[in-house]
Amino acid sequence: MNNKPLLLISGLLLGGNLLAGCGQAVSATAPTQSAGAAQTIENCGRALSFAGVPQRAVAMTPGQSEMLVRLGQADKVVAEAQSKGRALMPELADLGTAKQLSEQSPPSREVLLGVAPDLVYSPTSYEFTAEQGFADIDQLKAAGAQAYIATAGCPERRSNAEVKDLFTDITNMGAIFGVAGQASTLAGEAQGALDSVARRVSGLPKPSVAELFVEGNTIAAIGAGIEYNMIEIAGGENVFSPDDQAFAQFFSSVISPETLVAKNPEVIVFTTIDKAHEKATIDFLRSKFPQLDAVKNNRMVAVDSDDVMPGTWGNIRAVEQIAAGLHPEAF
After folding, report:
1. Cβ proximity of 237 and 206 under 8 Å
2. CB-side exposure of 61: number of CA atoms within 13 Å?
3. What domains are defined for the chain?
4. Strand partners, 77
5. Confidence (pLDDT) at 38
6. What pLDDT does 23 receive?
7. What is the pLDDT of residues 25-58, one digit of tens each?
8. Which of 285, 121, 117, 120 is nearest to 213 (CA)?
9. Which region is the signal sequence (predicted)?
10. What value does the mean pLDDT take over residues 250-272?
11. CA dihedral angle for residue 54, residue 55, residue 60, residue 63, rounded to 10 degrees
C-alpha cells in the first residue's frame, strides 16, 4: 500500500438546508456576550491572542459556518470558502452580510485577505499552505487575523484524532466569542447524541468495516484519525488500523483491489462528494467487487465528506449515520 493524501476529501460539500440535529434548531441569534475581554487560546501548539470578540470571521468550509451559527455568531461571519456551488445556509443568507469566496478549493491569498478577516476558522492546516497560493498563518497574523485550526485537524493530531476533539473546538470558540454558556449547551447536545449512540450499540456484535474513498478506479482506505474513531464509536471494527504501517504517517492509504478482497468487510462505509459521486461509488463496488460480503448484502453506507472533516457538527451526524448503517436493528 502507498500513502496518498485524498485531495478531494479536503474539498467539502455542504447542502444549503442543514439538519438541525438532535432535536434542536440552529440558532442565528447570539446570546448576551461578555464585554469582549482579551482571550488567549491554545491551538495546535500556538497561542492565539484576541483583544476582543472577532467581528469578521471567515469560515473555511460550510461546516465551520454551521458551527459558528450554532454558537449564535451568524452575524460575525463575513465569508465562507469552498462552497462547491452550494448556497449559504439560510441563517447566513438571510442576514445578507456573508459572501462565498471559493468553490472547489481554499481561496487565494488575495481573495481571503480582501475581506479583511480578524478570524479564520479552518478544518485543517492545509488551507493555510502558502505554496498552494493560500494565505499562511503568519501572513494572516500580519494582516490582523488569527487562524484557528480544528483540533482534530492539527498536523500532529490528524492521524490520532478523535470525535471528542470537537468539544475542544466548541469550548475554544465559546471563549473566543464570549459565549461560554452557549458553547456549554452545544457541547451537552453533542455529548447527548454520542451517549445515545453508545447506549444503542452497547453489547451488539461489531461488524467488520472498511471505510473507503473511491475516485475513478482508485481506492483509498481510512485506517486512522477521526474517521477511524467514528467507526469505533458507531459499534464497528475497522479492518484497517493505525497500527498498520500504511497508516503510520497519514490517516488514509491507497490500497489494491486484492487488499480489499482479502479483508472482505461485512460493511463498507464510503465518503461522497455529491449524489453523483455516491452513485458512481456504489456502481463501481458492485461491478468490481460482487464477491464482497458488504456488496452481496447491500451493506454500503454513504457519508457526506463534509461530515468527516474536523471541527464540524457533521462529525456528530456522521457517527449517528454510521451507527444506524452498522446496526439498523437498534435505530
Report:
1. yes
2. 31
3. 39-195 (3.40.50.1980), 206-330 (3.40.50.1980)
4. 57
5. 56
6. 30
7. 333 333 334 445 458 999 999 999 998 999 999 9
8. 285
9. 1-20
10. 95
11. 90
Strand partners for 211: 269
Instruction: Encode burial over 289-314: b for 16+ CB neighbours within 10 A, e otherwise.
Output: beebebbeeebbbbbbbbbbbbbbbb
pLDDT digits (tens, 9 = 90+) for 123-133: 999 999 999 99
C-alpha span between 330 and 73 (Å, rounded): 36
Amino acid making up residue 53: V
Closest among 145, 120, 129, 170 to 311, alpha carbons compared: 170
Best-predicted range by mean pLDDT (40-44, 59-63, 196-200): 196-200
Spatial separation of the C-alpha atoms in residues 244 and 254, rounded to whole Å: 13
Cα–Cα dist 222/150, whole Å: 19
Is residue 8 within 8 A of residue 254, CB to CB? The reply is: no
* Joined grid coordinates for residue 152: 482534530
Give a three-class secondary structure readout of the chain.
Answer: CECCCCCCCCCCCCCCCCCCCCCCCCCCCCCCCCCCCCEEEEECCEEEEECCCCCCEEECCHHHHHHHHHCCCHHHEEEECCCCCCCCCHHHHCCCCCEECCCCCCCCHHHHHHCCCCEEEECCCHHHCHHHCCCCHHHHHHCCCEEEECHHHCCCCHHHCCCCHHHHHHHHHHHHCCCHHHHHHHHHHHHHHHHHHHHHHCCCCCCEEEEEEEECCEEEEECCHHHHHHHHHCCCEECCCCCCHHHCCCCEEEECHHHHHHHCCCEEEEEECCHHHHHHHHHHHHHHCCCCHHHHCCCEEEEEHHHHCCCCCHHHHHHHHHHHHHCHHHC
Q: Are strands 146-149 and 119-122 parallel, antiparallel or unpaired?
A: parallel
Q: Which three cell numbers stand for residue 124?
A: 485543517
Count the alpha carbons within 13 Å of 256 in the hemisphere toward its beta carbon: 4
